[in-house]
Amino acid sequence: MTATQASAAATAEPILELDDLAVVFTTESARVPAVRGVSLHVRPGETLALVGESGSGKSTVALAAMGLLAGNARVTGRAVIDGTDIVAADEARLAALRGRTVSMVFQEPATALDPLTRIGKQIAEVIRNHRDVSARDAADQAVDLLRRVGIPEPEKRAAAYPFQLSGGQRQRVVIAMAIANDPALLIADEPTTALDVTVQAEILDLLRRLAAETGTGVLLVTHNMGVVADFADRVAVMYHGRIVETGPVEDVLLRPSHDYTRRLLAAVPRLSVAEADRPAPDREPAPEGASGSATDVAPVVELRGVSVVFGRGRRAVRALDDVSLAVRPGETLGLVGESGSGKSTAARVALGLITPTSGTVSLFGADLARTRSRARRALRSGIGVVLQDPVASLDARMTVGECVAEPLRVHRRELSAQDRRGRVEAVLDRVRLPRDIVRRAPGELSGGQRQRVSLARALVLEPRLLVADEPTSALDVSVQESVLEVITELQDELGFACLFVSHDLAVVQHFARRVAVMRAGRIEEQGPTGTTLLHPETGYTRRLLAAVPVPDPVVQRGRRAERLATLAAGRTEGEA
Amino acid sequence: MSTPSYLIRRVLQAVAVILIVTIVVFGLLHALPGGPARGILGPQATAQQIARFNHEQGLDKPLPVQYLYYLNQLLHGDLGTSYTLNAPVARLIGERLPKTLVLTVLSAVIGLLLAIPLGMWQAVRRNKPVDYVITTLSFIAYSTPVYFLGLILVLLFSQVLPWFPSQAPQGDTLAQVFSDPQALVLPVVAGAASMVAVFSRYMRAATLENLSEDYVRTARAGGSRPRAILRRHVFRNSLTPVVAMLGYYVPVLFGGALVVEQLFNYPGMGLLFWTAAQASDYPVLLGCVLVIAVATVVGTLLADIVQRIIDPRVKAGRS
């Protein structure tokens, strides 16, 4: 935004104005206040980011502004869009407003579109909801919109069903629906959270361009401070249903005044970048070679030339292609890459859950292909596993104590019940959970507590290898920090090797000593984290790193300009 | 998978299933105590008479031979001869099947036409009085045996209120059946009742699930009215699981017809089966079971094909 535009925006009448908004949800057992006393405004052409951790009420505010809250929500206060109070308006008035004056982009592009309706038709529906155009004209305009949001071959693609598109393309379709009638206000609820970082960068570029073209005001709901730094003009920080701090993006992200904002920002893992024009953030990258030259020690797990092919014939998919990696005692190998790059498949091969099509896997020095079921089971007792979703990976019908004790029941049958209880309590101490948690159900715990229960279960057999597949991706940053801290401490204490799968380059940079970057089933490059992520050798890793938004608006502006310049140079080169 | 190769594979699967059904039914038949001869000739028959009957009917040959013999007959459209009616089973079934189809298809179509809107209405009015009322009626209709329901219908709408005849149309041809539509009402209602009860439940559940899907919120955010969202999006998405259930419902429909035809004295395949069962007329029973098995297999095949048409993801192999 230029200076003149900014001053124009600052004086224009707000397109969205929330005044003392409060939302209370009535559940079977209680009335739960979700949002209290929220007041904010968005002017045409400006982007206000609403940030906060899960449960802070930021999505509730966004849905309340659309009048889209569930039936058990009671809203008080005012939410005025273009002169209409959403709180008081009836459903017909809201329908006339939605999709025309105000539109919304949602978090989950996989489910946001009707799976049985062609995308062109879904866009045309929004057009015809508000404008008196023929079905044919609406279809033509839908194709134009698909072109505007950067869908290749829009005439053909208009006839596609959502399942035929990638996640990023689906989000583009949702955006096309949102801008179909040139709305004055766009509400985007975590629009890039479900996407890979390179796709995230493209979607943010697209939203920024569209908002600038039409002077649309944007209310951006996000937990990602990098996205805030990249996109927002102003920021409002939510905590426990209230706004604790509002201000220009530079002030809030660089000079936060509220204590909670400071804590939140401190917990955000920052990607150290070599080309940044300011010194690296306060934290040191993971120390190298802390326990001497690790390469002499025999690896705990080693994949050599592993390929995995799913399916046969023309439908065969090469999920892994000649992958070689090794994790040694006491070290953490970070496995990074975008969705579909094969990082989880590689982790499963290491666990012996997938048999490679070719290549060898050795676990604790034994060739997995040559071990029989009983020996293999014994080998497996040396591995602990933590998975991404702490809700799905714990049996909801077992108590926490039973969950943690289960590996002991399977692999240490000789233990008495008392010994077992002792071991469970000891490991709960280690992951800093209170002992009386054993009698509770996983469903009663918070996400961070549940993930620590998963960790306790993974460590109760004192494994030599911990495989962690996106263990903190479902957690808030402050919780992520504490879980990673616990893993690091225990690793120092117990000396297990760790294979750490993550899409988050910043987390891997802080947590792993070595890193392997994967792309389309191959290892693009691997090496010590400091070297590989600061001075990458391949263009792919460079692009990946460049796409990560850093939570500093000044730095991020420079990075964005640089990334776009590189892209533009690549494009002209390609055309020449 | 491309559509032609899909169809070929599914038809081959269907043929295999039907073959297995013939083996099972054949085996069951010959496991009966005394066998068919005792059933036909009665308890007074001498051992010689039974032996002669078995020999005449080929029942003294080894079972696999009998089975192959039977299979060969089947391929020539010969379902054997009825012991009691002394007529080819194929002809007996051929005369009665169309009438049963009229009854079952009418029951199914009317049942679905009621069940689908009712289920959607319930979902939209979830936990409101109308939802509770329809739910209660559904459970009553579902838990009432068809013969009891039929008796009550006759009592209420034929005896107390003389609106409809208590007997189904008696004509031999379809034209004669349709010339007396009044008489079809009570049998069709009796056949459709459980259909409405079951499928309104399916439709209610499917609609509720779809109403909470993200795409409904997207459509609302685009300014679509609730009615339009139901019609354009929720209806089709909710229909796919219901269509899948339809195929499995074919044998239930025939089972219902068995009772309804007996109750209303409707000369269809159900009544034929009923009388044949009482007379141990095994060729007829076997023929009827085979026809129902084929109908079930064809029903599920059709349901799968319809689902492929409604839901493009099925065709692409990702549902």
Question: How would you summarize the topology of this molecule?
Answer:
The complex is a heterodimer of chains A (576) and B (319).
Chain A: H1 3-11, E1 16-26, E2 31-42, E3 47-51, H2 58-66, E4 73-81, E5 84-85, H3 91-97, E6 102-105, H4 119-130, H5 135-148, H6 154-157, H7 167-178, E7 185-189, H8 197-214, E8 217-222, H9 225-231, E9 234-239, E10 242-248, H10 249-254, H11 259-267, E11 301-310, E12 317-327, E13 332-336, H12 343-351, E14 358-363, E15 366-367, H13 373-380, E16 383-386, H14 400-411, H15 417-430, H16 447-459, E17 465-469, H17 477-494, E18 497-502, H18 505-511, E19 514-519, E20 522-528, H19 529-534, H20 539-547, H21 553-575
Parallel strand pairs in A: 3-8, 3-9, 6-7, 7-8, 13-18, 13-19, 16-17, 17-18
Antiparallel strand pairs in A: 1-2, 1-4, 4-5, 9-10, 11-12, 11-14, 14-15, 19-20
Chain B: H1 3-31, H2 35-41, H3 47-56, H4 63-75, H5 89-124, H6 129-143, H7 146-160, H8 174-178, H9 181-211, H10 214-221, H11 226-263, H12 269-278, H13 282-310, H14 312-315
Helix pairs in contact in B: 1-13, 5-6, 5-9, 5-11, 5-13, 6-9, 7-9, 7-11, 9-11, 10-11, 11-12, 11-13, 12-13
Walk me through this protein's architecture.
Chain A: Residues 275-295 are annotated as: Disordered. Chain A: Pfam families: ABC_tran, oligo_HPY. The complex is a heterodimer of chains A (576) and B (319). Chain A is an alpha/beta fold and 576 residues long. Chain A has a six-stranded mixed β-sheet with strand order 6-7-8-3-9-10, with helices on both faces. A six-stranded mixed β-sheet of chain A has the order 16-17-18-13-19-20, sandwiched between helices. In chain A, a hairpin with a 2-residue loop joins strand 19 (514-519) and strand 20 (522-528). The longest helix of chain A is centred in the C-terminal third of the chain and has 23 residues, at 553-575. Mean pLDDT of chain A is 88; it is low at 276-293. By secondary structure, chain B is mostly helical. Helix content of chain B is 78%, strand content 0%. Chain B has 14 helices and no strands. The mean pLDDT of chain B is 85. The A-B interface holds A 66, 68, 91-92, 95-100, 103-104, 106, 108, 111-117, 122, 125-126, 129-130, 161, 163-164, 174, 177-178, 180 and B 213-215, 217-226, 232-233, 236-237, 240, 310-313, 316, 318.
